[in-house]
Amino acid sequence: MRACLLLIPAFLVGACAADGKSGNQPATGGSGGKSTSAAGDGASTPSVGSAGGSGLGNGGSTPSLGGAGDGGLGSGGSAGAAAMMAGAPVDSGASADAGRSADAGTGEASAPYEPAPTKAFVEMNLYPGDPPNLLANAPMETIEPSGRIHDVSIPTLRRYPLDESKATGTAFVVFPGGGYATLNMEGHAAALAQRLGPLGIAVFGLKYRVGGGSMNVPRDALLDAKRAVRLVRSKAAQWALAPNRIGVISYSAGSHLDMSLVAGFDLGQPATVDPVERLSSRPDFVASMCTWNFGSAMSPFKFTASAPPAYLCHAQDDTTAPIALSLAIDQQLKALGVLEHLEVYPTGGHDGFNVGNPNSPGRDWPDKFLPWLKANQLTP
């Protein structure tokens, strides 16, 4: 059994326990930080949490229900453990049985429509069982008071609220940054959801493997990225999404992961028994902020002419990720005839594109990116 301790203030989440299997629907939780900016294969009662919850873990059979302060996470073991079923979200404000559907990896019939959460987020595991290359002796996953996540070994996907009366069918899967050591889920994914959800754009946050959660983080993070795009595409009907308008938004190391996906996507595995894995992992477009390659200015990516359209943003004074890297990537894509755009900001450093930070010079990038998508007929 592997425990994961959430280092969050007392008014948020305390702890959760996880083993390798689950028999539950997903837990829900809150942001776990500033508002600005483990998949099961069964179907028992989900845990429900309000603001501050985490919805982590993948073990147990009878999860607890909780309000603000415990996030719906129990104290461990079988009863009270928070667990999730891949692709089966439950609104944090709804009853325990609302939104029930089949596991995305089993091929069973699923509900025709699953409303987006009305607050916080819904969290679900990516895989219908242990993730590939599961590190059995991984350290405990921890979360800072700010919401930054460490040592992820069980990758998950968070679904955020949106104004469904304005639903566009467009989805953005966010790959947060953090140097492959941590994940800035609040500053990158949650903040973007707060910005774009009111516009009817569906935002998802990928909690991919980082830190001590993997023996080979870039390898396993790329598997998680592919699975996330496939999973969202597989749920297009239930979540009122257009399967050909699923994009990726990324920051820093998340942009390294994004570019790795742009260079290494596949069109699916037709022979697999998992219907999700039969789908393409190719994003329909990407937007990469302050792309990072372990401090190098050289591009390691091998793109092809089938790469998706790419919108890059970078600050000239970024000393963590030299702008020369984005310039090189832009030239690579342009030479292949791939639709691309590089938006250069004179200042902002490496954190200049956080939309939730009023002091970030590049926080307006969505105001440029969304019209670019429309102008190039990538969105209506």
* CATH arch. level architecture: 3-Layer(aba) Sandwich
User: Quick one: how many beta strands?
Assistant: 16
Helix content: 10-25%
Give the C-level CATH assignment.
Alpha Beta
The domain count comes to: 1
Q: State the end-to-end CA separation.
A: 48 Å
Shape assignment:
globular
How would you explain this protein's 3D organization?
The relative contact order is 0.11. The chain starts with a strand and ends in a 5-residue tail after the last helix. The protein has a single domain (2-375), classed as Alpha/Beta hydrolase fold, catalytic domain (Rossmann fold, 3-Layer(aba) Sandwich), CATH 3.40.50.1820. With 380 residues, it is α/β, with parallel strands linked by helices. Helix 2 (217-234) crosses helix 3. The protein has helices at residues 185-196, 217-234, 253-264, 323-335, 365-375; strands at residues 2-5, 15-18, 28-29, 39-40, 84-85, 121-125, 142-143, 149-150, 156-159, 171-175, 182-183, 202-207, 246-251, 285-289, 310-315, 340-345. It is globular and about 45 Å long. It has five helices and 16 strands. Helices cover 17% and strands 17% of the residues.
Please give the structural blueprint:
Elements: E1 2-5, E2 15-18, E3 28-29, E4 39-40, E5 84-85, E6 121-125, E7 142-143, E8 149-150, E9 156-159, E10 171-175, E11 182-183, H1 185-196, E12 202-207, H2 217-234, E13 246-251, H3 253-264, E14 285-289, E15 310-315, H4 323-335, E16 340-345, H5 365-375
Parallel strand pairs: 4-5, 10-12, 10-13, 13-14, 14-15, 15-16
Antiparallel strand pairs: 1-2, 3-6, 6-9, 7-8, 8-11, 9-12
